[in-house]
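Technical appendix A lists one of the benchmark inputs used to test multi-chain prediction within the project. The record comprises four sequence entries:
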Amino acid sequence: MRPTVTDVARKAGVSPSTVSRALGGGIVSETTKAAVLAAASALGYTPNRAARALIGGRTDNIGLLVPDIANPFFTEIVKSVSAHVRRSEYQLLLGSSDEDTAREREMAQALQRTCDGVIACSPRMSDEEVCANADARTTVIVNRLIDGMSCVTADPTSGMEQAVQHLAALGHKHIAYVKGPAGSWSEQRRVEGLKLAQQLGMEVELIQSVTPTYNSGTLAADLVLMSKASAVIAFNDLLAIGILNRLEARGVDVPNDISLIGNDDIDMASMCRPQLTTIASPKEQMGALAAELLPRLLQSGGAEPEQIVLPATLVVRGSTAVARV
Amino acid sequence: MRPTVTDVARKAGVSPSTVSRALGGGIVSETTKAAVLAAASALGYTPNRAARALIGGRTDNIGLLVPDIANPFFTEIVKSVSAHVRRSEYQLLLGSSDEDTAREREMAQALQRTCDGVIACSPRMSDEEVCANADARTTVIVNRLIDGMSCVTADPTSGMEQAVQHLAALGHKHIAYVKGPAGSWSEQRRVEGLKLAQQLGMEVELIQSVTPTYNSGTLAADLVLMSKASAVIAFNDLLAIGILNRLEARGVDVPNDISLIGNDDIDMASMCRPQLTTIASPKEQMGALAAELLPRLLQSGGAEPEQIVLPATLVVRGSTAVARV
DNA sequence: GTGAAAGCGCTAACAA
DNA sequence: TTGTTAGCGCTTTCAC
């Protein structure tokens, strides 16, 4: 049986409440505090989280909700959050909704119930749904901006504009964009960034994708070829790599025949050949900031939502080249 | 304030314990049960997990411990476990030890404390340490076999033997093996499988790697070249892809100059060119089985540890070819 | 500065 | 079949 406060109290010759105070930063004399600490560590005492949780607030859990844990973009955020959480008293509850909005809603509520706070990553729900299903005082949104909520995100529009400008500078006149999930905020902001292409007099073609995955990319590649675009931007790197491989399989050379730009800069983007030109999101930093912001938010009782927008930066590698004349 | 059993009881006109029984599968009359259920759903009642946990056993949490969440091999297992857990009453606590044995030990203990059971994936600790830090009655080990504990794993030795045989059939006489983490059970079992190569009269070279990652692979590639081996097997696909890219960068053609075999069959293995010949582990299935086995183990009070060994299968793709004469 | 007592929400004895 | 009672481990009044 695990030792309890009572055990520690007996061993230290004090009452349970004194133990609680000694361990929890209450007002205790130095001598008794030392005695309690000694007794606690002698017994190998660790507080029972359930009992703590029952009393009032804290469960000391934080929830992390992502659309797809197997998507490297989210995996890297999970890794970063997890590394930061580990250094605190919190434990991490993971929820992966598999890109299913209904499931996302359920999981958001479930996590909310069991956790002090939750970090919701790229929620696919609409703004209204997010607001309805997430308490602004206890949740931090990552990779999306919603009024009145704490958010950490990169700026997708600016990233896209950098990509468009890069392609324009290379002489491309006709580009295609392979779209991401409809409910995705980044998706909407990226499409926004495409307006620059129109302003620059480029022709822009929108191509649907089923899911933001490698397989979807291989499908999209054929649509890209049909479009006669000389350059493609994809919603994310996974799609881009799918496109890349299918294009090469059809004998189309990247970047000489078609230029290709991804989004996110996942590890894989620099592991493929040609290496992928991509719009890098500071995933590590987003995870870290979210993990720091959440406790601050909880501390303040959710009083002041903060919004942090980080820059996205185009990383030019081997998949983009001058357009053919 | 969230509704409690008392609220539901009042609304249904019964006592709290009746509510508890009605909701928890106790003996209740049909009529009162219906009344309680109606009251509960009218109030939007959900049980307080902390209170339940406090009473006795269940926290309804299960813990999942992996060495590195960003390693696609583990990510896919996490995804599979997560999908299965979602359908149960359990919630998933994630711990990633970043390949650090001390951290792994701590996290194993922490998860044990907060969870009904834990799934420990490829623990890097020694057998003795695992036994010391994990309760056999509440933990399932994945990707490793330990006496007296519940385990789900693929057979690394047989996989390696298939790879060796494949290379032998292609006429390779001198092969290199790029090693994985020293504490890894799979690593030890894979080295075991290499004995077959010696029996077949092949020369075998062992090459150290720092971590089982892409970067380590690029380092290892140069050592491979130094070794004069005509074929390489790597501890995992990540290493293999690192090796692949570095070899190509040095003007060495895979598979014509050097054949290359990975391990795990992560998604990336079929996204690179040439596609990677690799020893596939049934990751999805391992996660699923572990997620099914754990509740069964807990149910039985940890009475009967089960051990499940799944076959690993060599998937021949484009990175292996006939040895040059 | 410290102890005694109450109670968080729930379930498991024990009565009825 | 149902209600009453007690208690899980902890913190937090309230006395002292």
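Chain A has a mean pLDDT of 94. Residues 14-18, 21, 27-29, 32, 51, 53-56 of chain A lie near DNA strand C (CB under 10 Å from a C1'). Comparable benchmark entries are summarised in Table A2.
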